[in-house]
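help with this:

***
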Amino acid sequence: MPTTTLASDSGTGAQLVNLLAKKTPGRSGVTRRFTWDEVRDIVAANRLDLLGRTVADEETYSRDMERVRAEHGSVSAYVRTVKLADFIADAAANHLLILNDYPYALPADARHYILWSKLAMASGNEPEPAVREIFVAALDAQIGAGRYEWIWFVNPPELQSIPEVVHGHLIVRELGDVQA
């Protein structure tokens, strides 16, 4: 089992995070779900290559992407002409926030959204102010202000599965009973 040391925001200093499997070029998947703290630490350390889907979810993803390539020529063509066709045709919309069809191996209480964009977004884990406003407004309306926490990142070019379509990842979990 590989072990990776990542910085923790929890105030306890460096935290040892046991990662049961790294995401490999063969996209074999990971053997267990990450904890919220692990996801936060991986993103904060910019080790996005360690994120992945469970083995079973990765097998489903690979099978589905094979079918998509056979039917549409490429995943990018499918995303542009089917999945995001209405969004792309909408001249007034620059962003679309939707749940990820193939989320990473996140905790059960986390949701993985994709923010698709017609505008460039810089890779990294700090959303640009306009991007942050978009997803915070959507989450405030859906969940309630102050009732969730989030993790944001845009993969660097070498990790982007669909580099032809700009998108970022938003991972959200609702907080327990929050005092107003």
